[in-house]
Design goal:
By secondary structure, the protein is mostly helical. About 95% of the residues lie in helices and about 0% in strands.
């Protein structure tokens, strides 16, 4: 790989890295919002089941089952957030590798 090609790749990766903080922030915000909604609805559901007189030992399981769709959305949002963080690390490693290759080629 020639130095010009490596420099172009470094610019491409750098451009992608510039977008990473905003992506991570957006995904973290989506995850936090999904967590908030899930917890609020779970609390409401527990309260509703208690008011209906459901057996105390069953309330937690029934309530979680009734708001399972919200937990699913929360878990997806968390996965997306964690994935974006890992993607950032992979881009940083790629950038480091390209910079190392460029440095070695420059020294030769």
């Amino acid at each position: 790989m020639e130095s010009v090609e490596i420099a172009k790749e470094i610019l491409r990766v750098s451009s992608r890295l510039d977008k990473v903080p905003q992506t991570i922030f957006d995904n973290a915000k989506t995850f936090a919002e999904a967590e908030r909604v899930y917890r609020m609805e779970l609390a409401k559901e527990i309260t509703r089941l208690r008011a209906e007189g459901l057996q105390a030992t069953l309330i937690s399981d029934v309530a979680r089952g009734n708001v399972a769709e919200l937990k699913y959305k929360r878990d997806l949002a968390e996965g997306l957030y964690r994935s974006s963080v890992e993607s950032s690390k992979a881009l940083q490693a790629e950038m480091s590798g390209l910079q190392s290759i460029l440095k070695v080629q420059s020294d030769v």
